[in-house]
Amino acid sequence: TAAAFPAAYDTVISVAATTRNDDLASYSNYGDWVDIAAPGSFITSSFVTGKKNVITATGDNNTTYGCISGTSMACPVTAGVVALMYAANPDLMAAQTSEAVDAIREALLGTTDEKEYVYGDHSIKGLVQADKAVAAAKEAKVQVNKKYTLMNAAGTFGAHITGKIARGTKVQLSFGDLKGEKKDKSLKKALKSAKWSSSAPAVLTVKNGKVKCNKKASPGTKVTITAEADGDVMKCDYIVTERLIGAGYCVTTTNRKGKMKLKLHGKSNWTAYKDNNISLTDPSLNFKYTNLVFSKDSDDLKNNNWGYLADGKFEYIVTIKDKDIKKGNIEVQYSDKGKPIMATLKKAGKYTISYKTIEGSNVGFTCKITVK
Description:
By secondary structure, this protein is α+β, with helices and mostly antiparallel strands. It has seven helices and 27 strands. The protein is globular.
């Protein structure tokens, strides 16, 4: 079958489905872009049907649990095996690096049964083997940082993080402890004494955590920044992007000659209701027509054309007044890495949430919300 995305991306493990008869399922994708197979037919699921006499893989007809077939069943089976692999070797989780992810991938794909699973004129080789995969994961060796983690301006941290950087701009990385805290004064000293390097110095240069992007860099270029300090190794993979020209509520007008112009309102007023949720990672989910816009080349700026809408994978610094959080007016939810991801509007009133991108363009917008 034709490659399906995101499954076909190189960084994704693509899973085919097999049947109870050890055949490739008729509904399953196949091709050289598929990595592994897992059981996917007549899988007893966890949702309750409320009815008995539901046929299951074991033939049990006295259950009220539903039975489903699909690659959507094969993928969770594989994900469950990966969870067991991480549990078997705590270093793989503690490492938080691409090295650990590569070790998992190698152990998972290297321990299949190597059999061919066939349907019609096509096949997939290799069914997941949980016991062997877990055993291989136990033996995997990866570096685990003992003191430091790398952090970006939005608070994302880890031994290996990713981000965007606009050409012709600069961004600042910092050190945190393993919990993503920056309170220890020794962290700044470690940042300056660290050994910094770039995988492509002609595109990105780095000194003391300050990363500069060449204004002639090609968008889409990937560069890895590495920091070494006291035996710890940290990395950030940057993707070069066009420089953003603005953010906010987009309004277009057309003149008499039919030429379209774009105007971005950096401030907007919105009405919401108590207990409404506000995404702090992708503002476009909350505020209609709120977009990031960048220009492909200088002519777009001169002609005041639409430019090009950026995708939603930009990170933001989010600002909410401390008093609104402390008083319980706004309840903020955080990710397991301490990053704010969701705000719930708990009380009627007027509040302000500000967003600012961190890829170097320094664009942002402010949303004033009236909660009823």
